[in-house]
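Researcher: Next entry in the queue.
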Amino acid sequence: MNGPELLAPAGCLEAAISAADAGADAIYLGVGKYNARIRAENFSIENIERAVRYCLPRGVRVYLAMNTLLKDSELSDAYDTVLSAYEMGIDAVIIQDIALLKRIRSSLPGLKIHASTQMNLFSSHSIRDASREGISRVVLPRELSIDSIRSRALVAEKNGVETEVFVHGALCVSYSGLCLMSAMSGSGERSGNRGLCAQPCREQYDMFDGNNRKLHSGSLFSVCDLSAVSFLEDLIQARVHSLKIEGRMRDTGYVIRNVSVYRRLIDTLLSGGKMDALLKKESTEKLLLSYNRGGRFTDGYLSGDRSSLFSGNYTGKYGVYVGRIVKTDSRTGEMEIILLGRTVLKPKDVLSIRYNNKEEASFPIGKITGNDKIALVKGLHPDTMVKLSSGAEAYLSKSNDVFNRNHTPETIRKTSVRFLLENLSPGNRMIRVVLVAENLLGDKYIIDKNFSTPKVYEGQPLSHERVTEQLSKTSDTPFRVKSVEIDKNIQLRAPISFINSIRRTMTNELEVEIRKKRFSELHSIKADPVCSARYDSDNVNGSSKESKQSQIALEYISMDVNDGPLYDGSNRYIFSVYDLSKENHLLRIDELAKRNPEAKFHVRFPSAFSDTSSAAFEYSLCRFQNRFGKFFLSVISGERFNESKNRVISHQANIYNSESLSEALSHGPAGFFLSEELSDEEYIEVFRKISSQGVFSEHFIFRYGPIEYMRSAFCPLGRNREGCTTCSRHKIAWIRSKASDRLHPDKSQRFLLFHPEDCTVDLFGSALHKRSAGRIDLLKDMRIDMIHTVRVLSESPEQIHQILTGIRSNIDD
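Model: Structure for this entry, 813 residues:
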């Protein structure tokens, strides 16, 4: 690999073209409702073809984002969309749902599959597993440090898998694919895993401790946008294959600016140059004007310093701080600003006037005078000016220079070509023209044709300089002429139109040849009709296997919070791996094992964690197995492809349809949860479709207690400050949305569970979909082995007994 690919977002056709022109090596785009940015303009199949036609001859790859969870009823349409896009010439598809992975892998072997960051393949061994599943590239989680990226890139390379890393754009506070915060609100239609995130993490919240004392207030979960400018050289040296810019919801100007900045930086480093302080400063200022939150960027995950993540309470487009307003004159329409920042203001720049993190006005500058300390600005309507608060501040939200950048012919990305002209006959009656092209992907093409000069021409021979000039006029093509070599014996007696005709013929045939090479194998790749029929099967008859007696698994979310005696009347128990590192908790489990010698134990792992935590968890698990070997059954985790038999697939693996379940079960897990985003009807439909195959793994189903809304490597309590011990004083904290008083802190089940061991946090909340007794009966009729899971936080043994008694009555009916 000569250097990493620069991958740009394209929310519309204009953005795709602009990204290619600005220097992107590849673009990614979405179509219809099957992508993680449904609210972007997105593409029709026809526009995908236009994008491919534009990008292909320029050596720019096109990736289709299909990175959402899919219902059973959507799978065929989603696959048909991929097939149509493949026939248009896309280079790869980015996916989240393993059912779609299975279909593409079996029916379109020529199409590369990229695992979206939504698949949450965060560990080195998950990358090895992905390679066995036919995945050619893994988009790594944004939460990884540069050292973790290095180690994963090495593992990926050894296993024939490419790695892709986000270098710029918005950060989710949650690990990708592990956030249900939006999906569990309201009707449940605004799912982040379905491309419709309502961004509740940007809202205002109050945080309370267990005694209802307020700990924090504001945009607790809002994090800054990412910029990896300072780590580009490290990422290049780590042999990361693709550097990705986030932003399909952004405008075309954003795409142009960000691609241009990163193109310049990458090329500088690849050519042996250094990123000095001035270049870094200039680049960052341009990026800040493009879009930022909090007035700065963060590289906190890459650097390992997560204290820089929090963006503050202004969660919209922040811009760049200019200064403070000291005087306004509504009669003259003039505003006086003390300049406290370094930004130079110009006419047509857009200013945002804010007070206490709220925008009071926004306007383009009409006229500006003053000096480097004070600016006198006109442009705001007098009626608005009189309403401004005293002490308001000015921010530059849009720079006319940056936002109206036009590409020059020299800066637009094109494929380099060379012309060679050779004389083939006496009198220059026949000439040979060779056009040699090599794009930035390393693909080479040669067009070789002979041309007869006009028999009648009375003018002077064309000079070699004039021929070169005419052949180089390729501004309306995807090509840029690098050189023209003309046989010194050639004397072309022909009009200018003859040379122009040669240029058009050769460049047109080159475009045809590029498309021909790209599409040469497409005609033989079709959907497997047998495979499609199997996927569409809807056999609702139950399996003939006998059902085991249903059991109850009691899960202690945190033994730090529930520090009383453990209830001894359950069949099974689930403990957090975080609790297993503490001897006092192990002693309590010892006592439980003595009182309930028939009990079986599961250990729940979080669905994403650092390499350091991984080593600690494995050590704790090993100690636990040595101590409670005869009681231990399995680990519960979010891994889908792990071949271990003593493993239960958690609900955070996002098993959302029957084909995903079938694929997951093919790896032989001991048990599984389905996605908590499924409605009751969808939940049952998954089992109806798969019941004819037989479900020979235990199905764990939540019957009581909260579920994880998200997992985050950002702690909203201590904000990951160095040496912080705040969360050690607060086992949990309750949150309440400022927009809704119904979530009162002493009643709400929305709470944060802190993990001082690695400064991470889990947000829990009430499940939107309660599995009714009627639905449970339907599963019993289908002979599904169910493990009824009860999660408790601070409930007493007496309360737990009452809960389990009620559930048992439903099981035994």
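Model: The longest strand covers residues 320-329.
Researcher: Noted, moving on.
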